Structure prediction request, 268 residues.
Amino acid sequence: MGSLFRTEKIIYKTPAEIEIMREAAQIVSRTLGIIAAEVKPGVQTIYLDKIAEEYIRSQNAIPGFLGMYDFPNTLCISVNNEVVHGYPSKRELKDGDIVSVDCGSVFEGFYGDHAYTFEVGEVDPAIHKLLEVTKECLEVGIQATKVGNRLGDIGWAIQNHAENHGYGVVRDLVGHGLGRTMHEEPQVPNYGRRGQGKKIQEGLVIAIEPMINLGTERVITADDGWTILTADGHVSAHFEHDVAVVNGMPEVLSTFKYVEEALAKKNK
Ligand code: MG
Ligand code: MG
Prediction:
């Protein structure tokens, strides 16, 4: 989930807490690996939600989004022009769609929060490129998450990379601190200025989640009051990792390993 929140101050995590958060993030990572194998034309998005919930509960964890802000499901599933916060439904995925799947878990009181945008069948090359660049945006954001930098350096790195490709960087939703609550301080915008914002310190744990649009950066809220859509109807991509600052450097707690393994098997 992107965030709309206010808490008081940044809660830095101990090494022991980071280890629990790593497991929470790994549970979500494995869940997305299972989803990766199931994304195909004709699949209803509610089916993906069901298998995600079953797997998370089998891991002694609970779905992180279920009930949060009255959200009724385990996954946020956002198709094509839906940016984030889409509801699972009986909608069937179609060849050429892209689908962003955002998943949360709570394990031993700590949250994991991780997202991937999948291609359904064959997608347009311009859309494939958007997904690749959005993944790169996440990577440059992660590399900027180190002691000696400030939060603005993360946002700048993401924004610069996306805008170099002519894409729109969503401003209205941002990454966030993560811990015993899903959305803590600090907010982690996907835009910013170098050397601005709070200093990055040891024990910071954040969800970095670029939401990058093929067209305009502007977004609107759908009539359901929840789903965020691009204002111009073009598609949007979303990738998210949980990142801890350990020994001054970024350590990614979640992983795309399970997704990539599933996709490689599917494409064989
Ligand atoms: Mg998320
Ligand atoms: Mg998030």
In short: The mean pLDDT is 95. The first helix runs from residue 15 to 38.
